[in-house]
Amino acid sequence: MEVVRTIKDLSKIIDNQRVSGSKIGFVPTMGALHQGHISLVKRAGEECSFVVVSIFVNPTQFNNKEDLERYPRDLGADVALLEKTKCNLIFAPTAEEMYPEPDTRAFNFGDIENVMEGVYRPGHFNGVAQIVSKLFDAVRPDNAYFGLKDFQQLAIIKKMVNMMNYPITIVPCAIVREADGLAMSSRNKLLSKEQRENATVISKTLFDAVKLKDNYDVESLKKWVTETINNNPYLDTEYFEIVNDTTLQPINNWDEKVNKIGCIAVHCGKVRLIDNVMF
Ligand code: PAF
User: Fold this and answer.
1) Which residue has its alpha carbon closest to ligand 1 atom 6?
2) Is 37 one of the catalytic residues?
C-alpha cells in the first residue's frame, strides 16, 4: 500500500489503473480513522478492484478555528489501520497541495443546505463541496463511499455530483456504532471518560424516540428528545429535527407519505457530536 502526497503522483497511479481497466473505489476521510471508516473501505474493496483512501483535514469546511486545531490527527495510526484492509493507495496531501490558491468557488445547493448543519455551521457545506470536488477531480473514481452518519453531507454530495455531471456512483453506507450505541466518530477520541459515558444518552434517546413515536405529535416528540438529552448535565442539544429524507425539510405530521429521519447535533463539552435515526 503506497502513500502519496501530491496530485501529480496520484494521477500517474490512477492513469495506470485506468489503462489496466481497474474499477476505482474512493473513500474520502479526514483521518483519525475508526471502524466506521474501515467499513467504507471494506465495502469499496468488495465492489472495486482498486481502492483509494484520502486523508486530509480540510480547513475550508471548519467554521470554527478551535475545532480545526483540535481535530484529531494521527497519520501513522491511520496507515497502520489501513494496512489491514483492501486499501491500495492513500492520498495524504498538504493544505498547500490542495489549495495552491484560495478556493473562491461558492456552491448553491438550495433548500437542502438551509437547514440543520447548514444553519449551525455556516460555510461548512461549501467547504465540503470544494474539497470533495477537488478530490473527485484528482482521484476520478467510479464509486465513492460516504457514511450515513453525515446524512446531510451525503445529500449535498449527491446533489453536487448531479450538478457537476460527475460520472461517479455515490454509495451510502450504514452508521457504525460502538457496542453501547454511540455513533462512531473521529471526534469521540476527544471525549473525556465521563463525557464518553454520558454521550450514549444521545443514541439511546433517539432509539427510544422511535419507539415512542405513536404517543406524540412531531413537535412534542422533538421537545421530548431535546429535554431528555439536555437533562443530562454533560449534554447540550444544538438542534433536533425530523425531516423528509429527500428534501431535508422538517415534517409537521407523521402521516406525510415520505421517509422521515431525525437528525441531531449535541455539544458534549467542547465536542460536537451528530447522529440520526430513521422514523
Ligand atoms: O466526512 C468527512 O470526513 C469530510 O467531510 C470529507 C467528506 C472527507 C470532506 O473533507
Assistant:
1) 29
2) yes
Domain 2-173: give its CATH architecture: 3-Layer(aba) Sandwich (3.40)
- The model carries a pTM of 0.97
Closest to 160 (Cα-Cα) out of 193, 192, 125: 125
β-strand partners of 274: 265
Q: Could you tell me the distance, in angstroms and rounded to a whole number, from the CA of residue 223 to the centre of ligand 1?
A: 30
Q: Where in the chain is the domain with CATH 3.40.50.620?
A: 2-173
Torsions phi, psi for 84 (to 5 deg): -90, 5
Protein fold of 186-278: Pantoate--beta-alanine Ligase; Chain: A,domain 2 (3.30.1300)
Tens-digit pLDDT profile for residues 24-82: 999 999 999 999 999 999 999 999 999 999 999 999 999 999 999 999 999 999 999 99
Contact between 70 and 270 (Cβ < 8 Å): yes
pLDDT digits (tens, 9 = 90+) for 123-151: 999 999 999 999 999 999 999 999 999 99
Contact 174, 148 (CB under 8 A): yes
